[in-house]
Amino acid sequence: MKLKVILEPSDEGGYTIYVPSLPGCISEGESVDDALANIQEAIELYLEPLDDDISVQEGVIVRELVL
Question: Which domain CATH number covers 5?
Fold first, then answer.
């Protein structure tokens, strides 16, 4: 899977980084490399399955997709 990330210089130094296709998936780092490593972890957590935390009404179908 390929995702574009946006790195913006932070006013306090370092970089803020986010993934436009994953709303709310944001991180930061002191350097570009730090920010990229941190957003990788954030993406993994963002996409982590919810397991059995999903409660659905009768008739709703839940399927798992592998990308």
Answer: 3.30.160.250
